[in-house]
Design brief:
The complex is a heterodimer of chains A (about 325) and B (about 300).
Chain A: H1 2-38, H2 46-71, H3 79-95, H4 100-124, H5 129-148, E1 153-154, H6 160-167, E2 169-175, E3 178-183, H7 184-202, H8 204-214, H9 216-221, H10 226-252, E4 254-255, H11 263-275, H12 285-305, H13 309-333
Antiparallel strand pairs in A: 1-4, 2-3
Helix pairs in contact in A: 1-12, 1-13, 2-7, 2-10, 2-11, 2-12, 3-4, 3-5, 3-10, 4-5, 4-10, 6-10, 7-8, 11-12
Chain B: H1 2-18, E1 27-32, H2 38-54, E2 57-62, H3 67-80, E3 84-87, H4 97-102, E4 107-110, E5 120-124, H5 126-140, E6 144-150, H6 156-170, E7 174-181, H7 190-203, E8 212-215, H8 218-230, E9 239-241, H9 247-254, E10 259-265, H10 267-282, E11 291-294, E12 296-299
Parallel strand pairs in B: 1-2, 1-3, 3-4, 4-5, 5-11, 6-7, 6-8, 8-9, 9-10
Antiparallel strand pairs in B: 10-12
Classes of the chains: A mainly alpha (about 325), B alpha/beta (about 300).
Chain lengths: ~325, ~300
């Protein structure tokens, strides 16, 4: 019996190691191939793929910076409402004839300030991240509603140049008489991705964050300034959220007190999906990128194939569960 | 076991998508963030029913309140190459509509608002609704009395209503508009309207000094009703009218008190009219009327669907 189990467990270990690293990626590719086969003419077109990158760019900005707090083992529920609040700040400042640059700067400062508030509550006061950011989620949402009077700001307030930029791109090539462009939003998201990747993977700061995530107490005893670094991670996430809000508002030429609220859950889901791809199960920003793309590809592909929207949501959840389950089973087996 | 579950997952996919094979019939995408709202539901269901009769493929995409996602989904259906797109969202919040125009896909509005990108928008006529309720007030007062108006000029669709009602009252020599109030709408419009009405009641204490309250939508009418009842002045015959015929307003109308009339938009009719417009477009007709209005109905205790007493 024991021998039998030992015999059977050998291939399982190999499978496990393989699935642990590549399961999510393979699943992602299978999904891409599936949509490709269903909609051969449109899904794999350059234009559609670039569309997908534009569609996920705002989620990407939030998820990439969310990865930083999650490296430490914390998370931030307030990113969605912070994005909404930043959008409202930009809208209101433009409405009151402030310069665009000033408006964006103030919105980003608000994001940093919100991050400091989260960081102080969690790293210094010692409130659990779930509770602290749940509370600030409500505070930011209330601030967005009260600043705007609950109203949607739209129309001429937003300069055409800004809206055109957010919806435009750099011409790449001409296909079938249509100009294919790399969306500016995609580029912004790629810049954020590059910065976060550099910070996490190439700096002492990043290695310390992973050390804290591995063992907070040991890091503290080793002389790492755990509290300060934890606070900084929330500032990064707050900045990412407010940048996402600014970009979202520019793209839609609309500031609404709930515009960005939907970003939070998808951002956390993307990081979790990405975590399934790393050996130790810790968040890696390139993994988050795959998570973000997976969420974007599912929404885009399901819509093109014509799956009922409610079924779409069920399937998206099932796929996330499947991915995380496969990874945790394979990790346990090894 | 893992391999087996992968196979099962692939099979599941095949079952789910097996029925979604492409056909020759026109494909219409309906995109909205508001499917949870009753009005939108009526419109979409009516549209689906009409489309089913015509043999169209309709996919309804509901982003569950997520307005940014509407933009992404419009991009997707443009890429997919649908034959027409129906939106139920403010077109100014969906810059991707420009891509539909670029791709030669017509966009139809289902109570969506007008924009250059929208070929035809089907909606209710705000001017007409205000005219009907203001006329109701004038008729009920036999052309003479003191009227309180509730409007909201910062919001264009409501401002339209106020301007028409003012014209009708102004054109009736013995009607005097004693106040035009813009309530604070951040609380939903009822609470502040009530407070403002209480102040007006206090300033006009003699019975009969206020003959009617005309409100540009139902919430201020409900607030005014609460104020009148709280002041114990419901017996003075003050006539209240609203617009929209929301469930709370219907309840008040059915109760037979001061709140006498409101206007119901014909959401089912709007859905049907959108389908009709698309059919004409697909038949090669050039559509010149950018906005098509669905008829509305004055709701009073006589025709409201009141629960049996």
């Amino acid at each position: 019996m024991l021998a039998d189990r030992a015999q059977r467990s050998r291939p399982a270990v190999n499978w496990g190691r393989f699935l642990r690293s590549f399961g999510t990626l393979i699943g992602f590719l299978l999904i891409v191939v599936f949509f490709w086969s269903q909609r051969p003419a449109t899904f794999m077109s350059v234009r559609n793929l670039l569309n997908i990158t534009q569609q996920v760019s705002i989620l990407g900005i939030v998820a990439f910076t969310m990865t930083v707090v999650m490296v430490v083992g914390d998370f931030d529920l307030s990113v969605g409402t912070m994005a909404s609040l930043s959008g409202i700040i930009v809208g209101l400042m433009l409405q009151n004839d402030h310069a665009l640059g000033t408006a964006i700067l103030v919105a980003l400062l608000a994001g940093a300030a919100g991050g400091i508030l989260n960081g102080v509550l969690i790293a210094y006061v010692g409130i659990l991240p779930f509770v602290a950011t749940l509370a600030t989620l409500t505070v930011f949402s209330g601030a967005a509603s009260s600043l705007s009077g609950g109203r949607t700001i739209f129309g001429q307030v937003f300069p055409d140049g800004l809206v055109d930029f957010a919806n435009g791109g750099i011409p790449l090539l001409t296909l079938n008489e249509q100009v294919v462009r790399i969306p500016h939003l995609t580029l912004i998201a790629l810049i954020v991705l590059a910065v976060v990747w550099f910070v996490l993977e190439q700096t002492v700061f990043g290695r310390r964050l992973y050390a804290i995530g591995g063992n907070m107490e040991a890091s503290r005893l080793a002389g790492v300034r755990v509290r300060f670094l934890r606070l900084l991670t929330f500032v990064i996430t707050g900045l990412g959220a407010s940048l996402a809000g600014v970009v979202l508002t520019s793209q839609l030429a609309t500031a609404n007190p709930t515009l960005g609220d939907g970003l939070m859950l998808n951002a956390i889901a993307a990081v979790f999906l990405g975590m399934t791809m790393s050996q130790e199960g810790e968040p890696r920003v390139l993994g988050t990128l795959v998570g973000v793309l997976l969420i974007g590809v599912l929404a885009n592909g399901f819509t093109q194939v014509g799956v009922d929207t409610y079924v779409q949501r069920i399937l998206t959840g099932v796929i996330i569960i499947a991915s995380v389950t496969l990874s945790s089973i394979s990790r346990r087996r090894s | 076991m893992l391999r087996r579950s992968l196979i099962i997952a692939v099979l599941l996919f095949a079952v789910v998508f097996g029925g979604a094979a492409a056909q020759d019939a026109p494909t219409i995408a309906v995109v909205t963030p508001y499917l949870a709202q009753p009005g939108t539901q009526f419109m979409v269901e009516a549209f689906q029913a009409a489309a089913a009769e015509k043999g169209w493929n309709v996919s309804v995409i509901d982003t569950a309140g997520d307005v940014p996602a509407v933009n992404a989904r419009i991009q997707d259906v443009v890429t997919q190459g649908v034959d027409a797109i129906v939106i139920n969202v403010d077109p100014s919040q969906a810059p991707a509509l420009a891509e539909a125009v670029e791709a030669g896909i017509p966009v139809f509005g289902m109570d969506a608002g007008s924009a250059p990108e929208v070929l035809v928008n089907v909606t209710s006529n705000g001017y007409e609704m205000a005219a009907v309720t203001a006329t109701y007030v004038v008729d009920r007062l036999n052309g003479a009395g003191r009227v309180v108006m509730f409007g909201f000029n910062p919001y264009p669709p409501v401002q339209k209503r106020g301007v028409i009602a003012e014209a009708i009252f102004g054109n009736t020599p013995d009607i005097e508009v004693i106040e035009f109030i813009e309530p604070d709408v951040t609380d939903g419009g009822i609470a502040d309207s009530r407070a403002r009405m209480e102040a007006i009641l206090a300033a006009n204490p003699e019975p009969g000094s206020i003959s009617a309250v005309w409100a540009a939508w139902d919430q201020p009418a409900l607030g005014a009703l609460q104020a009148i009842e709280a002041a114990g002045r419901e017996g003075e015959g003050i006539v209240i009218t609203g617009i929209d015929a929301n469930p709370q307003a219907l309840e008040a109308i059915c109760a037979g008190g001061n709140f006498e009339a409101s206007i119901a938009q014909d959401f089912t009719g709007i859905g049907g009219l959108v389908a009709e417009q698309i059919e004409r477009y697909l038949a090669g007709e050039t559509l010149t009327q950018a906005v098509v209005y669905a008829p509305t109905t004055l709701i009073t205790a006589a025709n409201a669907a009141c629960p049996a007493q």
